[in-house]
Amino acid sequence: MSTDKLKVGIIGGGFMGRVHGRSALVGGARIVGAIGSSPERADAAAEATGAERGFATLDDLLAADLDLVHVCTPNSTHLPVTLKALEAGKHVICEKPLATNAQDAAGLLAAAQEAGLVATVPFVYRYHPMVRELRTRIAAGDAGMITSLHGSYLQDWLAGADDDNWRVDDAAGGPSRTFADIGSHWCDLTEFVTGDRIAAVSAQTRTVRSQRGGVDVRTEDLATAQFRTEAGVVGTVVVSQVAAGRKNRLYLEVSGTESSFGFDQEDPDRLWVGHRAASQLLTRDPDTLSPPAARVNRLPAGHAQGYQDAFDSFVADTYAAVLGGDRPDGLPDFAAGARSARLVDAVLRSAAADSAWVDVEA
């Protein structure tokens, strides 16, 4: 392994490849190379991600002198691509969902553990300072008894009749689209801040656009679920990619007997705190944040800190685990990715059984 700059490769030159590339550079890595969707796209992938050069094939990239690879390819390719990377002795950051079913995700987790390599999944909303503040306050008992959890993750990028994307195709994206893509983020965030796992779900899904691009659609445009946690807390969530006007609105509210908390990913510098007598709106300020929140703070108060900053912090923590051997607090690894796959599987099984209650495999 390199002793100066971590040497990384990026697999995929689309939107997420660009996001990973920016975070890699901010994290001080040297992006040795990138590959695109075809040999002809190699140079374009390199330009998009900030890599030194494009490689024609995955084998060519993995043969290079690399410490870690970022897997930013369509969901159905995560299993073979990530297995190859692990077999080549590379640490891995794999986009979510880790795999398109729970069995494959468990296999990737086992492979990473057997290889003894750092393997992480970018559940990056964990890295907003006000999320860490929320987590710290809940752990300290500020909420009192948590009575309910509720929220949503709403987008509109597939609301139009002519909107289409590879994720719509279950052959490329897997059997779940909306819940696997964004519901997974909401569930991960909820379990992360509360320390309480979702134990059972009753879900329903709906495909609003039955055809896109002249092809039948078999993945869901939206999903709703009620759930109960291992501690007996009840909750609800709505996720949609066809909610006009909502761009990337993840909202989580934790209701408690002493305090309630609300976090909105589109307004990430603030945390709503509700009390019976009065409520307040906390604004991110490194001088007043708890130590766990201050650790992921990147900018002074009053300077907006958002999604890319959270991604930068996640990548920095992954690199720190590779270089130092220690796992920074809250780093989402392949165990989190496998956990998410089990949740998605439970939602699909419940929806297929007319919203029957389905236990989530621990």
Overall description:
This protein has eleven helices and 16 strands. The chain has 362 residues and is α/β, with parallel strands linked by helices. The strands form three sheets. Strands 15-14-13-12-6-11-10-7-16 form a nine-stranded mixed β-sheet. A hairpin with a 3-residue loop joins β12 and β13.
Concise summary:
With 362 residues, the protein is α/β, with parallel strands linked by helices.
Low-pLDDT runs: none
Helix content: 25-40%
Protein structure class: alpha/beta
Taking the alpha carbons of the first and last residues, their distance comes to 35 Å
Total count of helical runs of at least 4 residues = 11
The profile of the biggest β sheet is:
9 strands, mixed
Percent of residues in beta strands = 15-25%
* Gyration radius, rounded: 20 Å
Could you list some keywords that capture this structure?
362 residues; five-stranded parallel sheet; 34% helix; alpha/beta; 23% strand
